[in-house]
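ok so I'm stuck.
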Amino acid sequence: MSAIPDPSKPRTWAFTSTEVREITGVSIMQINHWDRLGIAKPSLRPAGGTGSRRLYAPSDLAAVEIAHRLRATNISLDCLASAMRNLRTRWPNLAGIGSAVAVLVSPDGVCQQLAAGTDPAALLSEHRAAVILDLGGVIEDLRKRLALPRAAERPTPPGEPARRPQASAWGEEW
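replied:
not stuck anymore, here's the structure
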């Protein structure tokens, strides 16, 4: 990754599971588990057996980040899976969500977009909890993190030895 993704070409960027972990902070085990459950699946290259390399598009990266934020609220995996299906139905390209989009996620995973000025309490019945997620804010935060150079791309501070790229068996940097 050496540049900011071009929104007009959303599939030009591909992220490995390791890059998704570096960007979102979600462990590779969790990313793989969410792939198996259908919560956040790689659309560019799905898992193809032991040792295969998944490739995630920007929209998949956004799905991982949204799922991570929702899971941090302690919602169940069933609710999370349902919420992610509902969000993808409404916004197939999660990476393209506008900055002023917020949703209310109910305990059964139903997602309802909040209009500006809506009182979320009016949408809830008595004794039901829900999560309000600023989707636009989540995506904007993700875009800002993608604009920052990764550790391998940052200049070496004076006095430190230059970083050497690690090579894999396939001759790629990782």
